[in-house]
Design brief:
- The complex is a heterodimer.
- By secondary structure, chain A is mainly alpha-helical.
- Chain A has 16 helices and 2 strands.
- Chain A has a single domain, classed as Transmembrane di-heme cytochromes, Chain C (Fumarate Reductase Cytochrome B subunit, Up-down Bundle), CATH 1.20.950.
- In chain A, strands 1-2 form a two-stranded antiparallel sheet.
- In chain A, a hairpin with a 2-residue loop joins strand 1 and strand 2.
- In chain A, helix 1 packs across helix 13 and helix 11 packs antiparallel against helix 13.
- By secondary structure, chain B is mainly alpha-helical.
- Chain B has 2 domains: 32 residues; 100 residues, no CATH class.
- In chain B, strands 1-2 form a two-stranded antiparallel sheet.
- In chain B, strand 1 and strand 2 form a beta hairpin.
- The longest helix of chain B is centred in the middle third of the chain and has 22 residues.
- Classes of the chains: A mainly alpha, B mainly alpha.
C-alpha cells in the first residue's frame, strides 16, 4: 500500500510537470518563480532544522563507543572509536560521513542447524556508499549549468566520470552507479519481508523521487537530447536573477525540474535531512570524557545546603554553653 | 559547553549556506553572456539555400549521434555516403562536409560546447584544418 501510494505520488508529480510544460503561463511560473521559492524553502528549512537541533541541550556526553577508552598510560586506547579529544572526534566524524563506518558494522543473523549465527553483511554499506557518492558527483557535475565560465574542476570531474567514453555523449559512470545503488536500495525494501514491514510511505517516496530525477536526466542526455544551450541560459538566468523561460525545453526537462523542486522543498522536513543531521549526531560527535572531566547538568535545581561552618556560626554560643568542642576559636 | 557547541555548528552552517549559494556569488563576479553561434563564413554566405545536412532542430539536438554513427559506418563498414531525409546526398566527413561550411570552429562549435560544458572528442583524432584554426 505504501509502495503503491508512493508510486502514485511520483506519477502525480510527473503528470503535473507534463501539464505545466503544456501551459505557457504555468511553465513560465515553474521556470521563473518556483526556483526561488523552492531554494528559499530549502535553505531556510535546512538552517531552521540545524538551529533547532543545535538548541537541544546535551548536558552529558553520550557517545556510543566501540573501542577502549583512554585511561591509564599502559592500557592501549582507541583514539578514533572512543575519542578522548577533538581530533579523535574529527577522525570519527570523517569516517562516518565519508565511509559510513557505522553501516560497515552491519551484521546479519541466520538460523543454521537451529542456532542463530551472526555474520557480517556488507552489501547495504557497499551500495549505500556507492549511491551517496555518485549522488554527490552528479550534483557537483551539475555545477556546469550554474557557473559561467565553467569551473575547471567541474570539467575535470566530468572528464573523469566519462573516462571510458562509452557512447556519445559519453556515459557518466556516476549515473550508472547511481541507478545501481537506487535499484539495490529499492529492491531491498520490496523483496525482504522484514524491510517491507517497516518501510513507510516516505521511504519509498524518497527513493522513487530520486529515481525519477535520475531517469529523466539520463533520458535527456542519452535518448531524447535536450537543448543544452537553452538549459544553461535558463539556469544562468536563475543565478543572475534575470529568469527566462527556456526556449526549447521538452517535457522531460519540466519533469526533471518538477522532481528536483519537490525534492529540494521537501528535503529539510523529511528523513533526507540526515544530510545535515549526521553532523549533529551526539552519539558520534561528542568526546568521551565523562570520567576525565566533570559535567554538571545546567538545569539541576539548586540544592539548599547548610555547611558545618554555617551550623557552628549559628549555634556557637549554645555549643560552648554545653561544653561541646568548637573548631573556630 | 554551550559556547563550545556553537563554535562548531555556526561555522558549519556558514560553510553550508555559502556553499549552496556559491553560483550566485560566482555569477555576480563573472559576466555570463549567452553565446551567439556565428554562421558568417565565406562558404555559407555564398549558399543560395542555407540548409545544413538535416534541419536545424535535428542538428542541434542530434549532431553528436550523427557524427558518432558516421564514424562507425565509415571506419568500420566503409560506407561513405549519407542520404539526408530530404534525399540530398553528402559525404560522411567531418573535415570535408561539416567544416567546409562551418569553417569557423571557434565561433561555431566551441562557443556552444564551452558554454554547455560538452567535451567532444572529435579533435582527439582529427586535425583542425589550417583555414579553420585561425
Amino acid at each position: 500500500m505504501n509502495l503503491l501510494l508512493s508510486f502514485v505520488a511520483v506519477f502525480v508529480i510527473a503528470f503535473l510537470s507534463w501539464a505545466i510544460a503544456a501551459g505557457t503561463t504555468a511553465s513560465s511560473v515553474l521556470t521563473m518563480y518556483v526556483p526561488y521559492i523552492v531554494f528559499a524553502v530549502f535553505l531556510g528549512g535546512f538552517v531552521y532544522r540545524i538551529v533547532k537541533w543545535a538548541k537541544a541541550p546535551v548536558p552529558f556526553r553520550i557517545p556510543t563507543t566501540c573501542g577502549q577508552q583512554k585511561g591509564l598510560p599502559w592500557i592501549k586506547n582507541n583514539p578514533v572509536e572512543n575519542p578522548a579529544g577533538p581530533w579523535g572526534v574529527i577522525g570519527r566524524m570523517a569516517e562516518e560521513i565519508f565511509l559510513f563506518r557505522s553501516l560497515f558494522r552491519n551484521t546479519d543473523v541466520k538460523m543454521i542447524d537451529g542456532r542463530p549465527v551472526y555474520g557480517s553483511a556488507k552489501w547495504l554499506w557497499f551500495f549505500g556508499l556507492m549511491f551517496h557518492g555518485s549522488l554527490l558527483v552528479v550534483a557537483l557535475r551539475h555545477l556546469r549549468f550554474f557557473t559561467e565560465p565553467i569551473l575547471p574542476c567541474v570539467n575535470f570531474l566530468a572528464g573523469l566520470d566519462g573516462f571510458f567514453e562509452i557512447g556519445a555523449p559519453a556515459l557518466y559512470l556516476s549515473d550508472a552507479a547511481l541507478l545501481a545503488g537506487l535499484t539495490y536500495l529499492f529492491l531491498r525494501r520490496v523483496v525482504l519481508p522484514q524491510m517491507r514491514y517497516i518501510s513507510l510511505l516516505t521511504d519509498y517516496f524518497a527513493l522513487l523521487l530520486i529515481a525519477g530525477i535520475a531517469v529523466t536526466g539520463l533520458l535527456m542526455r542519452h535518448f531524447f537530447p535536450v537543448d543544452l544551450l537553452s538549459v544553461k541560459s535558463t539556469v544562468i538566468g536563475w543565478v543572475t536573477f534575470t529568469p527566462v523561460v527556456p526556449e526549447q525545453a521538452g517535457v522531460l526537462l519540466y519533469m526533471h525540474l518538477g522532481f528536483v523542486f519537490v525534492l529540494m522543498a521537501w528535503l529539510p522536513w523529511s528523513k533526507l535531512m540526515h544530510l545535515g543531521g549526521i553532523f549533529m549526531s551526539p552519539t558520534r560527535n561528542l568526546i568521551n570524557n565523562n570520567r576525565s572531566q566533570r559535567h554538571i547538568n545546567p538545569w539541576n535545581a539548586p540544592v539548599k545546603v547548610h555547611t558545618y561552618e554555617e551550623y557552628e556560626d549559628e549555634f556557637c554560643d549554645k555549643m560552648k554553653a554545653v561544653g561541646l568542642p568548637v573548631e573556630k576559636e | 559547553m554551550k559556547q563550545h557547541k556553537w563554535r562548531f555548528i555556526l561555522p558549519g552552517l556558514v560553510i553550508f549556506v555559502v556553499g549552496v549559494t556559491f553560483p550566485l556569488w560566482y555569477s555576480a563576479v563573472n559576466s555570463t553572456p549567452v553565446p551567439v553561434l556565428s554562421l558568417d563564413t565565406p562558404v555559407i554566405n555564398q549558399l543560395q539555400n542555407k540548409e545544413c545536412v538535416e534541419d536545424k532542430a535535428f542538428m542541434s539536438a542530434d549532431h553528436m549521434k550523427m557524427l558518432h554513427a558516421w564514424r562507425d559506418e565509415v571506419v568500420r563498414e566503409g560506407k561513405r555516403e549519407y542520404t539526408a531525409k530530404d534525399g540530398r546526398k553528402f559525404e560522411k566527413s567531418l573535415t570535408r562536409t561539416c567544416l567546409s561550411c562551418h569553417s569557423n570552429k571557434e565561433q561555431f562549435c566551441d562557443r556552444c560546447h564551452n558554454y554547455a560544458g560538452a567535451k567532444p572528442t572529435c579533435y582527439d583524432c582529427h586535425i583542425i584544418p589550417e583555414e579553420v584554426k585561425k
